[in-house]
Write a structure and sequence with these properties.
Elements (H helix, E strand, L loop, with lengths): L1 H12 L8 E5 L11 E7 L17 E7 L2 E7 L10 H4 L1 H8 L4 E10 L9 E9 H4 L26 H17 L6 E8 L8 H9 L4 E3 L3 H9 L3 E11 L15 H25 L7
Parallel strand pairs: 1-4, 1-5, 5-9, 6-7, 7-8
Antiparallel strand pairs: 2-3, 3-4, 5-8, 6-9
Bound molecules: hypoxanthine (HPA).
The site of hypoxanthine has 13 residues, from strand 5, strand 8 and strand 9.
Amino acid sequence: TDAHIAAIVKAIYEKVPFDLDIGVICGSGLSNLSAQIVNPIVIDYSELPNFPHSAVMGHKNELVIGQLGSKNVICLRGRFHFYEGWSPKDTVLGVKVMAALGVKTIIVTNAAGGLDKSFKVGDVMVIEDHISIVGMAGNNCLVGPNDDKLGPRFPSISSVYDSNLNKFFAQIHDEKKAELNHDHELRKGCYVGLSGPNYESRHEIAMLRVCGGSAVGMSTVNEVVQAAHCGLKVLGLTLITNACLGTAADEYDLPEPNHQEVVDEIKKVEPFVQSVVSTFIDRVDIESYK
Ligand code: HPA
């Protein structure tokens, strides 16, 4: 409710006396971005009224607020997943709070399996669009009475993944790739968001490929729908942590996805992704989004 968001915002403003420029939802792969924040103000989720928490490995449960380069940022270290039992609305509370704090641009990150067979483990994909299977199946965060103060009943989400942010990210990525001799190309594509928590069946993977999905994961899509509803622009980043197993004959010999592999692959590319994202945040021009 409005009162709930207002209470959370009040608790944050008691500790944070400045305006915020960019919000970051640090999913898998970016959980330590906040270590680079200067003059960090850390607020444990438990200090905020009725704020959810995440039990997933690698997800801390704190807001970290401070400076990254030229920007004031707010990082959610740990997101809330539908598969943990949070309602679709619970999973997007952080986005509403960021919007209420005046943030207009958010960065969301996640780990995902590569549906596109040309993708390699360790690649970063810029999300150009998504397919919200979780939302299409009835678990859309906007179901229920519309909050007209936030946005319209029937919001368009066709340009929430902002092409200018994507282009600028690609530029910074390629600069850092050359500077640090990083050996992965930047990918672009469509993120498919499912409820999880099981990894997909072979025929689900085959179906998602036909649908045009490039990567598949268990988060992000409702947060982005909420961002669109609040009028925010999104840079979405996916770390490809594993291959997906479909129905082709040669896919029966491949190792099955498992969480330890996902965590290990994230650790390997995390320093690179962090350095690209922090440079992006420092240099991105957000005035045009205000
Ligand atoms: N499927 C769904 N979610 C994931 C995967 C996957 O293969 N890898 C990391 N998160």
